[in-house]
Fold this protein.
Amino acid sequence: MICRLCPRNCAALRTETQGAGLCRMPEGPVVARAALHMWEEPPISGSRGSGTIFFSGCSLGCVFCQNEKISHRDFGRPIPLERLADICRELIAQGAHNLNFVNPTHYAHVIARLLAEHPMPVPTVWNSGGYDRVETLRGLEGKIQIYLPDLKYLDPAVSAKYSAAADYPQAARAAIEEMVRQTGPCRYDENGLLVRGTVIRHLILPGQVNGAKAVMDYVAGTFPPHTVLFSLMSQYTPWGDLCQTPELDRRLRRGEMTAAADYMRNLGLDGFCQERTSAKEEYTPPFDLTGV
């Protein structure tokens, strides 16, 4: 395939066995982990967990990525589509409330085919970094019930420095607006589990409280009340080689989280504030081919 799935629009030739482009992945899926996950937002994890499938490779270059073993070093196992369908069924049999495709952007074509050929009896979750193309997302309409994108930054200089993508703010805003168009306001089942809607995540970075406030201003000013959920995350943990960005080589200070959480409450955003105790390495799942 000539790939134009993500905003890089790199037109790389991805074959069934040969990786290419900035995501470095072949056309077929490469998966690093598939298991029940209890650490998503409450209406997604519920009481039994979200059935998470972690794809390898990534078209972003976030210097702080906690999943860098799969996003930067490309750990994972190539599998055929039928095995991916079996993994989905196995997670449902284990009790998964939903199927959660993590880092799926460069495998949009695979997920679209999977869900067309193998309709699933539980909601499906598109859990991405927010760096998605609107045209690609439109190909998923009707197949994805819950969108769970990051909105990392609105400053092009910051996104260029930390994610090697100066166009991230523009691309992510357009993508999230398309996601909300597709899902409409959040809807829940009788147990309070999300069955349809968009949850926008923002990870507070050290020294970037003003950036977090700008993201929240955008969400509050763009979407009518009670349309989306907003998840303010404080789990940032220094990770990988940060010698070029030493300002990120620390955990959040209590005052940074408090200031951001207060701002969220004052805006009246519906959603969640993650506790600072989540900033622990053990909250990053082991990428060891579990369930693959």
Summary: The mean pLDDT is 95. The first strand starts at residue 2 and ends at 3.
